User: Fold this.
Amino acid sequence: MATLVNVGCDVNIYLPDGDTISDQGDYECFKKVYEAQTQQTVPDVTFVVDLPNDEVPIVHPSLLNVKFFEGGIDHKFRDYRPSNANDADCFYYHQTMPFEDLLGAAKRDRFCALIGPPGCGKTTCSKRLAKQEGLWCLHYSFMEMGYGEQKLSLQQLLIDYVYRDLDAEVRKKAFRWLSSHAEECALIFDGYDQATWSLDGVAPVNASYDTPLLVQQLIANLCGGVFLREATVIFTSRPHAMISVPGPLRPKLTILVHDLTDYGMNLLFRAMAGDHANKLWLDFATTAPLLLNLCRTPALLQFIICAALSRRTQDREQLHTLTGTYSILLEHIGHSSLSRGQDVENMRGQIGKVAFGATQRATVMMNVQDLTSEGLDEQSVQDYIIALPGYKGRNQRLLPGDKRYFFVHQTWQEYFTAYYICYFLSDDDFEAILQKVATDKAWSMVRRFVCGLLLNKSFPKPEKSHKFHEELLKHYKHATEGEFLELLIDLLEVEDEFLQPYVEKFPVVVVFSYITFGSSNAFALTRFLRKTKKAVEKLEFVECVLNNGLMEICKAVGSMTNKMTHLNLRGSTLGGDAMSALAHCVHNVEEMDLRICDIRTITPLTAAVATLETPMRQLNFSGNEIGNVGADLLADCVQNIKELEIREGEITSIEKLAGSVLRHNHQLKLLDLSFNPLGDEGLPALISCLGNIKKVRMYRCPISENGKVQIREKLMELNLPQRRVIW
Assistant:
């Protein structure tokens, strides 16, 4: 006989006769389960760098609270995602969250998803969450839940099949405590994108805990609150997999696991590079900032450090490209004592064909047939490819053909795909796929590796190189602004002797909008600015983030052969050294637009303007609260400005500015003072220099009618048109 007991929220469980929920032994049994699982969830964050876990510093990636299911997801998530896609840019809204607050936020919303690209640290985050205080956290891996069509009870899923070494009675009592104290527990499921099943089309069903159900049905009941309604549920997944989760099962809280912070990346970099850290950091910062930027992803950081410290790299000057990094890393792993598989030199074509097939199918998943058809097996490729368990029967029997595989990091799939295209794909098949590789966003990371492999003087098939170059150049000439920047980064992989046609086709008008220009993006752009001989008429950064890249961009503009007509930084975030950066290029720019850039101080830019040999055509500081101090600083350089716009600058006095205009007998074409609190007390200074200014704009300045009369009378006295001053 069994007794039906309600444990809250209209959920019933069956207890054998004589058992009670309040049995103290249940708690002790649950503690045994918890202690057993803590031994399984020690974060293992190293892969190719031989660094003991106890020497790995505890760092966390940036966590962004995003509106994933509430109209904030970009449609691009519905496609296959190349590894170089910036997931943070695909959300219309996000805010940061400290790691320490994550578990509490997940408990508040009950169901939380941690999403992010491969290698960003989702698994490590989930394991560290399991160590956090505040909830009893049980950690599970979706890749271990390949139960196929087998039906399980909730106890079997959460306890029995995970902790087989524990006594059956201990497992039963542990589950009983879990079911009656769900509000004190968190269930963390890692890698939904690696599950061999999907929640797509699955709805919660009314069932008791001991009802055998398919694993996806059990998970749906947990997500939907039918089972363990008071428990906290946390998923980790790549973003694309979460799209298929039905509306009623979707998490209320979605956290994007993004790049490591500057501090975290620096700390991990130095721990892994050891005594070589300072030299490597300097090398990367000056010659290969793209590699330094990629180090913000924990997995890629390990790959790059490993390649940089390999014996082959020490024989070279420095490491410069991503393609070179992976080629070196491939050789290093093959000869390393850490290697577990066969030498990859003899398998590049076979692994490449497997990778190429998966990329063509727009998937990161492969099956047994993909490997065996190329004469590969699981053991020979285990340095690069991970196996997912397939169907597990009651005796944990793995049936042939049920396994799934994926590369240890998506960039390996993309590198091997590119290698196969370059070295093994037939000429006819190459021509058939050429346009896709050169232009399709889904193949953008493959294209980057192809650039590094094909546009290289050592590549043995020049005809293939030429065809790819022609197709890429065609795309380069007609690319959108986002595509154009990606192509500039791709061309960092290319040797200089292949670069000249792209330099010659560099556009005269370059516009970027809503883009973060870190050091790597800036490095890619400035490489071309320094090489081009043509006059770039306009360079625009509209509402971009330029903190770390502005100095390099300005130095490049300052070194250009021809003077730039217009540099527009409107609405952009410039950083603390912005005026110093702009001082490096102001001599080579005719017009500079700095509207709404949150500028408060304008030195040393004004000092640089004061030394110009020829006046600049326009300088626009509108929308920045430079105040009277800023106006006074502009007085020191106004003789070298033809049009000065300082709207909305919180300026109340222009006495020094007007005096400077008079003293230098300077003819300003335009002085725009609109929307400044410049009342009648500021008029005498303005009136004194009206004869030296062709046009004055004073929209919405609080000037009285009497003040306006004074201005009109002065204009009449000077025999100047009344339209010279516009109210």
User: Anything to note?
Assistant: Confidence is low (pLDDT under 50) at residues 1-21, 42-48, 71-79, 390-401. The first helix runs from residue 24 to 38. Residues 425-505 form one domain.
